Amino acid sequence: MKEVIEKVLRPIALDENVPFVGVYRVDGVPIYIHFKDRRVLSLVDWLESQVKVLINYIASDYFKNAEFRMAGSHLLLSPISKTLVLAILASEDASIYKLKIDIESIKSEFEKHV
Amino acid sequence: MFSFLHTPYPKTKDAIQDLKAKLKEVEFKPTLAIFFLTEELINHSEKFASLVGCESVCMPIEGYITPESIWTRGCLVLLTDAEHELQVFKGTPDEVVEKMRRGKKGRFNILIYPLLYLRGRLQVLKGMLRLRRLYGKYESDPEYVLEKASEIYQNELIYPINKMLRPLRDAGVDAISFNVFPLRMKYGYPIIAVNGKKVGRGVVVIKFRERMESDYTDTLPERGRSFEETKEIVKQEFMLAEEVEVEKRGIAIGHIDGMKLSDFLEAKKIALSKKDISAEFSERKFFSATPYALGFISTETYGFSGVGLLNYPLEIYPCLFDLDTFYSEAIFHAETLRGGIKRVESHLYDYVSVENDIFAAIDHNIILMYEEKVRNLTDVKEYHGIFTSYPSYTSAKVSKKYMSEIEKNILINLTTTMSFIHLD
């Protein structure tokens, strides 16, 4: 499973404007995390506690996806299956509109495997 | 024969490795490879060119479509063994047009060129200074000032789209124009490379010996049969559509309703950018899209085409197409497309069908307008395509009264256009 997730996320994980990519279970437990800089971990730690509820809303179809705009970065949460949510932290230099398009392609790749 | 490869990896090393493996599976020996490269990959065009043992062209794009997915990272590669000739023409627009007129044409042609090319900071600063000095004489002789400004813009920066298509139109051949203007620009951009070597400011022409079926749509209703009729259709299409009087010559736009552009935009409550345009080019922060536009109606066909109004305080604004065959009465409007992405889909699927193998070039503004909804564009039919700046077209056989046919058989608009090549 780890290899599959790694392969599917690779196009995003290689992006230097994406310091963090993670896949979470709907109960908020991370099943895959890729980060480039330890400094994002404190932010991710804080986010995990905050987004647990949101992930639940997404998983139960109340929200389609969720976005946080923070100083200098942008967090996108998007469901990739009935039980998994993709979390991407992008720096302010990333083109968010483009990232959203690529997330759709990542999702369809996941659908083939999950 | 045609074949496509793609890789979604944004790093050159990974992309090259992936393509290398995929190239081994190609079942014919290509004579031409066109690399459509996203983001930073274009900076390493020589590495991509060295992957193939044939002629190659590299151009930047904003994204691409494969039968399974849409990506804005990595690249799409078109390989073909079709008989062709590759030529590069350099010089000012007039010089290039003259050379193209004299040269041999293909039965089908693809033009690839930088619509606006920024050689360097010094060139831009010098040009801006000359334009500012020139503007000092605007009150006393606006026609002279606009003519000179148009010359400066054309000789230094811009290849006007309609002008570049005229030699092919006049020869009665079909051509698709990739007039490249990336969403984010910096000095030395856009990069276009032939056989791995950067072209700089020049026009690449790929001339195919055999005619290939091609097509185009602008996603707008058909044009009217008079100035008034087209004006009314356009006013129904766009938000905030207001008639304005524009002083213009060549590709230079002077006063709008008697005001310089910055005053006009302020009067419309559109905030002007306080950032230094030259610094934005240095940091690749210059963004080439805007929701506001000036639309012009052609005196020749009553067709319509618009140019976006970026909110930089320029006294004389450059248009990306030649305005001499347009009325001075124009329409200021905001960008919308009635019907949204569904309308784009319906126009697209008029041309992309299950029976045909199609390559589609779709205007990159559609990405900005619909973001992840562009995924819908692959829901029904399978095809390959790219998102690039407003693909333009000329053909001896134009099938409809397209709104954006602004000169006989020349079709351009700076938003929501699509061109198609049949690869069967």
SSE topology:
The complex is a heterodimer of chains A (about 110) and B (about 425).
Chain A: H1 2-13, E1 20-25, E2 30-35, H2 40-59, E3 66-70, E4 73-79, E5 84-91, H3 96-113
Antiparallel strand pairs in A: 1-2, 1-5, 3-4, 4-5
Chain B: E1 2-7, H1 12-23, E2 32-38, H2 45-49, E3 55-61, E4 63-65, E5 70-71, E6 75-80, E7 84-90, H3 93-102, E8 108-114, H4 121-135, H5 142-156, H6 161-170, E9 174-180, E10 184-185, E11 193-194, E12 197-198, E13 202-208, E14 214-217, H7 227-237, E15 239-249, E16 252-256, H8 261-267, H9 277-282, E17 286-287, E18 292-297, E19 304-308, E20 317-318, E21 329-334, H10 340-351, E22 358-363, H11 365-370, E23 384-388, E24 392-394, E25 405-407, E26 410-411, E27 418-422
Parallel strand pairs in B: 2-3, 8-9, 22-23
Antiparallel strand pairs in B: 1-6, 2-6, 3-11, 4-5, 4-23, 7-13, 8-13, 9-24, 10-17, 11-12, 14-27, 15-16, 15-21, 16-20, 18-19, 18-21, 22-27, 24-26, 25-26
Helix pairs in contact in B: 3-6, 4-5
Question: What features would you highlight for this structure?
Answer:
heterodimer; A: 5-stranded antiparallel beta sheet; globular; B: alpha+beta; 7-stranded mixed beta sheet; 6-stranded mixed beta sheet; 11 helices
Walk me through what this model shows.
- The complex is a heterodimer of chains A (114) and B (424).
- Chain A has 114 residues and is an alpha+beta fold.
- Chain A is built from three helices and five strands; from the N terminus they run αββαβββα.
- Chain A has helices at residues 2-13, 40-59, 96-113, and strands spanning 20-25, 30-35, 66-70, 73-79, 84-91.
- In chain A, strands 2-1-5-4-3 form a five-stranded antiparallel β-sheet, with helices on both faces.
- In chain A, a hairpin with a 4-residue loop joins strand 4 (73-79) and strand 5.
- In chain A, helix 1 runs antiparallel to helix 3.
- The longest helix of chain A is centred in the middle third of the chain and has 20 residues, at 40-59.
- Chain A starts with a helix and ends with a helix.
- The model of chain A has no long low-confidence stretch (mean pLDDT 84).
- Chain B is α+β, with helices and mostly antiparallel strands and 424 residues long.
- Chain B has a domain at 2-117 and 159-219 and 340-423.
- Helix content of chain B is 26%, strand content 31%.
- In chain B, the strands form five sheets. Chain B has a seven-stranded mixed β-sheet with strand order 7-13-8-9-24-26-25. In chain B, strands 1-6-2-3-11-12 form a six-stranded mixed β-sheet.
- The longest helix of chain B has 15 residues, at 121-135.
- The termini of chain B are close together.
- Classes of the chains: A alpha+beta (114), B alpha+beta (424).
- At the A-B interface, helix 1 and helix 3 of A face strand 5 of B.
